Amino acid sequence: MKKLTILILSFLIISCSSNNNSCENSTHLEDGKCVSNIKLVDCSILNPPENSEAIIESVEIYWSNGSWSETKECDYQCDDRFILRDNRCISAIYIDPMASNNGNGTLENPYNSMKGILYNYGTSYLIKRGTILNETIEIKASGKEGESIIVTAYGSGDNPIINGGKIIDNWSYISNNIYQSKPIFEENEGVGHLVFKGDSLPFIVWNETVEKTLGGCYNKCYTTTSNGEIYLYSLDEPNPNDYVYSSRYWGIYAKNQSHIIIENLDIRNNSFHCVQFENGEDIIVQNMLIKQCGGAFLGEIQAGNGIEFGNSVKNSIMQSIEIENIFDSGVTIQTYDSNQTASGIVFKDIIVKKAGFAAIEIAVLKNGDSQNSSISDIVIDNVKLYNSGNGFSGKRYNLEGRGVKISADSNSGSINNVIIQNSIIDSSEGVGVFIFGDIQNVDILNSKIFNGTEDGLVIQSGYSPNMEINIDSMIFDNNQNGISINVVDGKSISISDSIFYKNRAIALLAINIPEIFESTHNIFANNLNTHLYIGTLLNIGTIDYNCYHKHDRMIGWISNSYNNLSDFVIESNLDQNSKDALFNLDENYNIIESGVCD
């Protein structure tokens, strides 16, 4: 049941004697007559939503502060064939995977499977909470503007689980604590990762022989082969009920479909992507838990993301999602064919933990000879990315583990207008934010990039003449450089109002810089090697109004180093650089002490 706000259409006027323009209690003067302070509104004469029933015949409103209330609430209830959403009754199809019979989709007689369901616009498909659906949901139709296809949950309890895993019941002993399983696959299935009692086991990349691959294991780990074999190292004989492998490629899949909402689901144990939309627009994925996806072999290459928007997806949102233990990327927008255009995508309020390739990946890929594709107008807002490259698949290809990767492969296309704001990128097993290729207009604002094993931020490009990068963030406690810049051809990079703190190499390293380069109003504090190193002459640019702390680790500029600020100012003719008195952060990385620049 839900309340709908409607306009008042009528009221009851009550006359009373009034010789001196005054009225008794509970009435007021209106048009020369005393009118009751109470109005009765007959809800039955109003217009309830289509396919609804008014369950209250009348309501009362009151005179207050010299006027009638302009609105009043009537209660409505949709009948069992519909659910109330956004003040409308939406057609509803019910699915209970635990139902003994496959019914007709009503609340009293639900379907027990989504196989064979025909999708219609303006319809909600509701899966019962507290249940497990062991199949892929493939959506083969589009909604319409304002009448989306909705896949969601109903009832009480935990959100329904869309499970792509299967139990292993055919282990055979090989040697040296190594066991083998050979699953039998159906269409759109392949071996992904291995789960032991609900937890992902460490994956080891195949190395010539099974003994060589798993020889370094000390407890439990596994490997897979391109022909679908699973090898497990275990000190204990495996109990079949304890092991599940990812099998079905997708939890949810749709191609060339639009106006779709996916929400309130728990998706796990898919061997390729948990959720994939290829092409389409007005797609919303929200209020989800996604875990343990990816690892399937596609030819000789293993892959698999948490959520993938592929090729030309436009004007879509991922929000309020938790993602954990993904073989490749937690969430991604990528083009992999020629002449694709992805645009208008929002990532908001997302948590990603332990993605092997990148927590968030935005990529124009050179897939074969694909070219002339683009990604534009991307907003990454209030995301929290933890331990990229430190999940069950480790650091993918031994090169990645990015927190955020924004890349356009050579001659494939470009990426334009990306905003990262109000976000946390913590403990990446690689670079915190990696920007590469023909990239234009990236803003990194009010964010924290820290505790990475490599650089906090890398900007690298051989050809990007329109590149404009703006940074206003905190970069600290990274094991190598805070920011590394090597841009042979670009337009501008501006770093302002940022904090570089306790980075273990160079806080700001600029090997090659674009025509316009600015580093202003920044704080450099307690960096363990060098605060700032500029490897080329500045054409048009400034390094001014910065504050430096711990001055024995100072500045490098065109092969010279300066431990004395005044020497650097004289040599560079940049006379607005300063030093500060004190700088420290608390355990939550908030500034607790900061001296005034002098």
Give a brief rundown of this model.
By secondary structure, this protein is an all-beta fold.
Structure characterization notes:
The structure is a single chain. The chain is mostly beta strands and 598 residues long. Helices cover 2% and strands 50% of the residues. The strands form 8 sheets. It has a 6-stranded parallel β-barrel. Strands 16-23-19-20 form a 4-stranded antiparallel beta sheet, with no helix packed on it. A 4-stranded antiparallel beta sheet has the order 17-18-22-21. The N and C termini lie far apart (64 Å). The model is unreliable at 1-20 (pLDDT under 50).
Low-confidence regions: 1-20
Helix content: under 10%
Query: Total number of β-strand segments?
Result: 57
Task: Give the averaged pLDDT, no decimals.
Answer: 87
